[in-house]
Design a protein that fits this description.
Strand order of the largest sheet: 2-1-3-4
Number of strands: 4
Structural class: alpha+beta
Number of helices: 4
Oligomer: single chain
Shape: globular
Order of helices and strands: HEHEHEEH
Helix content: 25-40%
Distance between the termini: 25 Å
Length: 105
């Protein structure tokens, strides 16, 4: 997958590794506030791949996941959504969801 281009839904669905997709926008205050929480939780799960997706009007990937608010965190394993968090405010909720997709975590 080209890291510069937004991945397609088919590419994401085909990934077998534990994956966190973070939908947001660079100007979103909620997104900025969530960054240290996400980073702290991910530090304990190095096997989980994180893909940040700049979302907004006309962005198909966010619509395919029915994203309505930012940030929306979607946790996938073997291409299947196992958890979703919208506007998380503490790292413990993120940690619980990461444990769901990271069997070695």
């Amino acid at each position: 997958m080209n890291p510069e281009a937004e991945p397609s839904r088919a590419e994401l669905d085909a990934l077998q590794e534990p994956l966190l997709i973070e939908f947001g926008a660079s100007y979103c205050g909620h997104c900025a506030a969530a960054q240290p929480l996400i980073a702290a939780a991910l530090d304990r799960h190095p096997r989980v791949r994180r893909i940040k997706v700049e979302d907004g009007p006309g962005r198909r990937l966010g619509r395919s996941f029915r994203v309505k608010l930012w940030p929306t965190l979607i946790f996938l394993r073997e291409g299947k959504e196992l958890a979703r968090l919208v506007r998380p405010t503490d790292s413990s909720a993120i940690e619980v969801s990461l444990r769901q997709i990271d069997s070695a975590g």
